[in-house]
Design a protein that fits this description.
The chain is 37% helix and 21% strand. The chain has 14 helices and 22 strands. β19 and β20 (418-422) form a beta hairpin.
Length: 451
């Protein structure tokens, strides 16, 4: 068989074994060459309980591994799984990731013909370039919390070569009877479409394999380009740098959507509007999928739409001060005495919110009216800049280049419409520390100039 094991040398590999012809061939081949490539070999078997014969197959695998001296982990689904999608999710999230605690990778027996079936299936469904990659090794470090892969050592081997290897080595196996049914789309492609294609174009499966590897290389390049456009300062926004290449921009946008939603419920129209938003005026906004997208200088920012629907009744300043409140409607905001600052920042603020860059503003606590409140921006708010000069709060935000998307979510300390502190940005001249100040206080919030 055409198997390149050099790239898997020195790894701890766990083989997913169903008992079928392909997985038994893979297990036998890796076992025969393990010492040559310094591979530590184990196996796992997953009983989905989808077939009456599944327990029989699992017992067959266990017997083979015991006789061969291959350590085996066995998994049985708590309930009978209804379909292939549920079975795949269970294998990955329950079985494979459990084994990830003990191994470097899980090997599956997908082969060249499986790859051709996948490419043809995705092509028929109208998939983009990523669907043309076929079946590849996959990095899953985020799921496993460590370096971890799904590997496919047999992916360059056609089914005929595997059959020859099984026969030549007298490898026992069991048949999954569902593989021979043609009421599944993939089985129709396997038993009807691919043989007809091979008859019409000999070597079609190998040609599809070469095409899929080229597509995978192109896809990797496009993904790198998309990655270079992205930056993030959650929960205040994910950013896409300006990019007129639509194919790259769309990929970057999809990365963000998947990150927020973990599902593909977007439309082509929404992606088109996101792309066109780049060419709109700064501050223009587009809402979709419970997200809000804003055009800013040289970029698009996408945030959770909830950021703009806070209650705006206000919290009495005395409550914030007495309780050292750490959040106001989801925004980090607190006050403390100046002499408490170092310990407070280390033990409370930075400990609770290590991912946030904070800004500390010192002010005269004695100049804060008793009926002052912490709230968000309202019509008519005005701000007396540090050093003098009063402007509408909106104009002051514009002068400071505070993004429009943030303005209604920045906590303010207000006396009526008079803004005394813009948390995370600046204090009013009316509450500055001077020679008569008795209580120097600190207002602590996210640094809105660095978001």
């Amino acid at each position: 068989m055409n198997v390149n094991l050099q790239k898997y040398a020195n790894l701890n590999i766990c083989v997913a074994v169903s008992g079928g012809r392909d997985s038994m061939a893979l297990l036998h081949y890796l076992h025969a060459h393990a010492s040559e490539y310094n591979i530590t070999l184990t196996a796992l078997n997953c009983d989905h309980r989808m077939r009456e014969t599944s327990a029989r197959d699992s017992a067959f695998v266990a017997d083979y591994c015991e006789r061969a001296g291959i350590p085996l982990s066995r998994y049985v689904a708590d309930i009978k799984l209804d379909d292939e999608g549920a079975a795949r999710s269970w294998r990955l999230l329950k079985c494979y990731l459990e084994e990830a605690k003990k191994c470097d990778c899980v090997a599956t027996a997908h082969h060249l013909d499986d790859n051709a079936e996948t490419v043809l299936f995705n092509l028929a469904r109208g998939s983009g370039l990523n669907g043309m990659e076929g079946i590849t090794d996959i990095d899953l470090p985020a799921f496993a919390n460590k370096p971890f892969k799904l590997i496919r050592p047999l992916i360059a081997c056609p089914r005929a070569e595997i059959d020859e290897y099984v026969a030549a080595n007298s490898i026992p196996y069991v048949d999954d009877e569902t593989n021979f049914k043609t009421d599944y789309t993939r089985n129709k492609i396997r038993h009807n479409v691919l043989p007809a294609l091979e008859q019409a174009v000999p070597g079609a499966a190998r040609a599809i394999y070469r095409f899929s590897r080229l597509a995978a290389e192109d896809e990797e390049y496009f993904e790198r380009q998309a990655e270079s456009l992205l930056s993030s300062r959650k929960p205040y926004g994910d950013y896409i740098a300006h990019c007129e290449e639509k194919v790259i921009f769309r990929r970057a946008a999809l990365r963000i959507i998947a990150d927020w939603h973990q599902k593909e419920d977007y439309t082509s129209e929404q992606l088109e509007r996101l792309y066109n938003l780049q060419f709109a005026e700064n501050g223009k906004r587009f809402e979709f999928l419970n997200l809000a997208a804003f055009k800013e200088q040289g970029r698009i920012c996408i945030v959770d739409d909830e950021l703009f629907h806070y209650e705006n009744e206000g919290t009495p300043y005395e409550d914030v001060y007495r309780q050292h409140a750490m959040e106001y409607c989801g925004q980090v905001v607190t006050v403390c005495f100046d002499y408490e600052l170092d310990d407070y920042m280390k033990d409370v603020v930075q400990h609770c919110y290590p991912e946030i860059t904070f800004k500390v503003l010192r002010y005269d606590g004695g100049k804060i009216p008793k009926d002052a409140v912490v709230r968000f921006m309202r019509a008519g708010d005005k701000f007396t800049k540090f050093g003098g000069g009063t402007k509408s709060l909106g104009d002051w935000f514009t002068d400071r280049k505070i993004p429009v998307r943030l303005r209604k979510s920045i906590p303010l300390l207000c006396d009526g419409n008079d803004v005394l502190i813009v948390f995370g940005a600046e204090i009013s001249d009316k509450v500055k520390v001077d020679g008569d100040t008795k209580d120097v206080m600190c207002a602590i919030a996210a640094d809105y100039g660095k978001i």
